[in-house]
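Supplementary Methods. Inverse-folding protocol.

Structures were first reduced to a C-alpha cell string of length 109. This string, shown here, constituted the complete conditioning input.
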C-alpha cells in the first residue's frame, strides 16, 4: 500500500445511507484486493463510478448491495473497469479532503 495508490471520490447519492451519505467523501486504494462484505468503489467501463457493498465477485459478475433501497443486484464484469476497497470514510466534502491530503480526484463521468 502506498499513498500513490489511494484516491478520493465524493458520495454522490443516498444509495448507501445510513452507512454513507451524499456529500461525504471516501478514500479507496487501487492496490488492495476487494473482499466480500466490504464497501467498494466500482469504476464503470462506460465511465463514472458507484459506491456499493460487495457481496461476492467472480470472473463473470459482481453481486452488490445498496442500503437505500434495500437491494442486491448483479453486475456483469464487462460493465466494470475495476473494484477497489474503501479504506476510509470522511465526514467532509471532497474539496476539503483533497485540500487536506493532496489526493487526486476521480470525477464521475
Amino acid at each position: 500500500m502506498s499513498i500513490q495508490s489511494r484516491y478520493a471520490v465524493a458520495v454522490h447519492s443516498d444509495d448507501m445511507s445510513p452507512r454513507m451519505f451524499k456529500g461525504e467523501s471516501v478514500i479507496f486504494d487501487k492496490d488492495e484486493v476487494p473482499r466480500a462484505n466490504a464497501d467498494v468503489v466500482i469504476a464503470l467501463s462506460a465511465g463514472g463510478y458507484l459506491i456499493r457493498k460487495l457481496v461476492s465477485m467472480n470472473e463473470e459478475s459482481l453481486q452488490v448491495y445498496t442500503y437505500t433501497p434495500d437491494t442486491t443486484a448483479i453486475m456483469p464484469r464487462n460493465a466494470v473497469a475495476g473494484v477497489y476497497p474503501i479504506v476510509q470514510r470522511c465526514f467532509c466534502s471532497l474539496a476539503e479532503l483533497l485540500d487536506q491530503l493532496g489526493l487526486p480526484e476521480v470525477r464521475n463521468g
